[in-house]
Give the backbone structure.
Amino acid sequence: MAAIGLNSAFTAGFALGFSLILAIGAQNAFVLRQGLKRQYVLAICLTCAISDATLIIAGVVGFEWLVTVLPGVVGVVKWLGALFLFGYGALSLRSAYIGGEKLQAGSGAQTLSAALLTCLALTWLNPHVYLDTMLLTGSISAQYEAKTAFAFGAALSSFVFFFALGYGARMLAPVFAQPVAWRILDVLICMVMWSIAFSLLTH
């Protein structure tokens, strides 16, 4: 029975974690872009996966308690996150307008530190991470006695997803050899960023 409970909690955690990060968002769009350009893919995927795992564990351990004690933190996170997403979306739209970018292995002047800072900002300044990943994961984990197994399953899903996205993006390399493909991607990224920001401010 104990083994069944562990397996059930692990499977539920993995499925929940995977479903929460499956939709294209700010973080995923950045990982996809880095994968297409083949720049710092290992470092970016590892940073995203470790960050998500940390947030998942924090949610299981007790972020709900923090929200109960400091209810105003949710509103602050929403506004700061929305402002950041509007700004990042504007940069993507500007990139689409300027154009001229095409896929070349190792191209671009972005440094590793700049890429990691952007990655961390898109992860830790994204309010959905706190509202969905931490709160939702934490509340659902309460249904299982094997919370450790649940948290491990959810955290593992992040590693599987981000590495599949980062390295799987290389299969799209022929498409993104054309500058117009990058313009379309940048416009889509802008739309995603702004739609997330609008949804935060209207809910």
